[in-house]
Amino acid sequence: MKELPSKYYLTHFHEFLGFITGPCAHLLSTEDSAFIDKFHALCEDAQCLYVRGLNRKSPIIKRTSLFYEEINHHQLHLDTLIAEGFYTEVNQCHFAELTNNLTKPELAQVLRNADISFKTSQSKADYLQLVQEYCQFEDFSPLLENNTVIHRGKDQHIHYFLFLFFGDLNSNLSKFSMRDLGIMPTQRGVSTDNARFDFIDEAKSAFFYAHQRRQVSTLTASQQVSLAQQFTSFPVPQGTLANEYCDRFLLKLGKAILPQDVSLGINLLAASAEPLAQEKVIREKYKLGETDWVKNRLERIIEEPESEALLTFAEDFLARKFQQKRTSSLTDMLREQSTKVLIDEMYMDSVEQGVKLYYQKQKKQAFRTENRLWRALFGLVFWHELFEMDSNALVTEFDYKPQAISQNNFYHLYEQDIETRLYRMTSAQLTFKQLSKVMLEKYGRPNGIFRWHKSLLEVLAVFFDHVDIEGFKDHLRMMAKDFKNYADGYPDIMVVDDNGLRFEEIKAPGDQLRKNQLLTIKQLRKSGFKVAVTQVEWFLDPQQPYAVVDIETTGGRANQHRITEIGIAKVINGKVIDSWQTLVNPQRHIPQKITQLTGIDDEMVSDAPLFVEIAENLRSYLSDCVFVAHNVNFDYGFIRAEFERLDQNFRMPKLCTVREMRKAVPGLPSYSLANLTRHFGIDMSRHHRALSDAQAAAELLFIINEVRHQKASDNQSRG
């Protein structure tokens, strides 16, 4: 890994401040500018000491922790920083921050100082609650003697600057380090001459409401009520982002205080333009018996819908509460698909993969799509408008999502260009050629719309072979108008058969259809796409193939060690129908202790194939199988790591014979492979050789499946 210069963090901070004092200069208050001037007036080591402190999560910092080899005369510079207000002594105002920063023994000491009884067996969370409820600041005094801890000052400026730079409250300066280390890819070459806001009132207002929303979850119930009571004195939000943050703040706070004060909570929710807030108001009013108000409000929404999401809710709620409809739209959509798909229960952890394979076995084309397909289609079609047309699209190299998408006004800003592009998409095949060209030119470029993957072109080729171009354009237009609500919720798989192309939302027993899925499915259908909601039922398929795998390795860690041998026993319907075995050249020395255990040494593997040479055959042999092993995560993890070294994904349904034997035959003293084979009288010709161990594990699988089939039969009899 790369090594950064000793004072890399100071270089990053100056780069950061360069953006703040450059493109964002018009967004700074007099106090913000004075803080920056004061920082620049510090000597280099004092600047280093302050920036080091900024990288701490808590503003409460122990003096002794601010000692770094590259900084000289720590105490002198720390005294300067305290004198200039960059650090302050801890006082009553810092009670909450101080409390959250203490260790469990330190909290215990505070409780003793306050003569509060507690049990040593109690959790740290219990200690925290006791301190917050019963202790005073004076009870901390022994921990604060000699100013052993200090409080980082000026954070209000830094938080605001970070908001201006990154556009959110969650990012920090560590992203610069991750960029330089190559861990975080960025949009290199993006101009940094732009700011996120045009006016200081907009920036300060957006920051204020973003901060208010963030702190809601950190407050006690009484503090939340107090905050809600202060809302009428808050500044009026300025600009699109500030209004969005304000609406989301009101939604979060309103929901939080409903249990304490229903009336106040409803008033806050009613002031929010968020569809979820408006839904909550209607539900709460209905609970209170204000049915006339609710009915009138629902009818107004239907007559003049504020959003598709709110319209869908209003139509459904009106039908169920006032027109005697017994089921919701979500329930109706789940029930409308009468055909159920039987999938082997081995796919319980990957139900979509199970359904995909189910269709592929029927010689139908099936692909996992979910949100990936439609987000990729949107990003590829509008790449120019999203990333290249406007110099303000991305503000810094750390941005991925264009400003117009973040603010959900993409169509409003680029309506003419969007409509022109859609007009020129005269056929599906022409569109496919255009998108293929974009992929060729832009492949791998980070973006906040979709993720690149190697199978994307294949999926697009099948999609455009069967899609109606007008329906496709209609749905893309909807995404452009409201990407916020149509960026997700898309069906799990795309299927192509003799009846054409359709999407399927897969639901296993107990799964619920979410509102965003209902909204997206409705819009896809309006655009002419066939969309089914397919319900899965589990069963034990006797024809399900299992690949019982065992590997030998040079050591126990998949990210460090390598495979030396692979053995596989393929099982169908309680019989081993085939086997596969190979030594593998690990391209490194095999330790003596491993050779003693397995009998495999360097000479044996010197002429063996490399993993890359067997990878394709191995993947083919394992296809359509359930991956079975004794301690399955070990074997699976090594094989997945080998594929990752080749930049290939590896994913299969898994079964662990250790875990399943514990369920099938509980109470045995040991579930190691050697002990289980002895217990059941299973012959194992050579322990710690891959094929022998795989064949032994296959015998355990037979026992496991007998128990599983018996349980399934008993359940059917009781049903």
Task: Give a description of the structure.
With about 725 residues, the protein is of the alpha/beta class. The protein is about 55% helix and about 10% strand. The strands form 3 sheets. A 5-stranded mixed sheet has the order 4-8-7-6-5. A hairpin with a 2-residue loop joins strand 6 and strand 7. The longest helix has 29 residues. It is globular, with a radius of gyration of 31 Å. The two termini are about 60 Å apart. About 30% of the residues are buried. The model has no long low-confidence stretch (mean pLDDT about 90).
Structural class: alpha/beta
Which runs of at least 5 residues are low in confidence (pLDDT < 50)? none
Percent of residues in beta strands:
5-15%
Q: How many helical elements? A: 34
Count all strands and give the number: 13
Mean pLDDT: 91
Could you estimate the helical fraction of the residues in percent? Answer: 40-55%
Q: Write down the Rg.
A: 31 Å
What is the first-to-last residue Cα distance? 59 Å
Global morphology:
globular
Report on the biggest sheet.
Answer: 5 strands, mixed
For the largest beta sheet, what order do the strands appear in spatially? 4-8-7-6-5
Protein traits:
719 residues; alpha/beta; 5-stranded mixed sheet; 13 strands; globular
Structure at a glance:
The chain is of the alpha/beta class and 719 residues long. Helices cover 53% and strands 10% of the residues. It has a five-stranded mixed β-sheet.
